[in-house]
Amino acid sequence: xxxxxxxxxxxxxxxxxxxxxxxxxxxxxxxxxxxxxxxxxxxxxxxxxxxxxxxxxxxxxxxxxxxxxxxxxxxxxxxxxxxxxxxxxxxxxxxxxxxxxxxxxxxxxxxxxxxxxxxxxxxxxxxxxxxxxxxxxxxxxxxxxxxxxxxxxxxxxxxxxxxxxxxxxxxxxxxxxxxxxxxxxxxxxxxxxxxxxxxxxxxxxxxxxxxxxxxxxxxxxx
Length: 222
Fold this sequence. Notes:
Layout: E1 3-8, H1 12-23, E2 28-34, H2 37-47, E3 51-55, H3 63-73, E4 77-82, H4 90-95, E5 100-103, H5 108-119, E6 124-125, H6 127-139, H7 159-169, H8 174-181, H9 185-199, H10 204-213
Parallel strand pairs: 1-2, 1-3, 3-4, 4-5, 5-6
């Protein structure tokens, strides 16, 4: 199956570079490019891609708002690009529905892998972005929590599902969770699916957010 991608970045050389790398793959097709957030939304509506590779900072309509519109209108997965050191909006972009983040200096193979992972319905965060996400929760600890699954919603989870959610929030893969819980990966996949379904979450990224917002996991905790 071919993964259809729209590449959106306001820098033409960056946009063209990512487009060439992805288009060179036998299972990936770049169906459109966009130079601002509004163009990105229009391209997604016209071409119905599987993945939108989207710069977090865009003219006309910023990447966060574009992600919110795209994720709210269909099944296209959003993979956001960031320079990290300059961006303070990781949390807001995840809340908007982004399925993952990549740094703009990402290696060629990692870019291709990320697009395939997100297209398959998984989520992906660069390690540095995960660190920033947790730091963001730490800095917001004294502020009112944004809307999210209230703590009482966790009552719908079994004890093993709550433990699975806690381990997801620590950034563990299914294989790592399986080793931690001493169960099979198939069992872990079932637990993860149950967690997402019961809490009404889109993917693992939103599961991380839910774990922190409900107090199941705290910054610096395990």
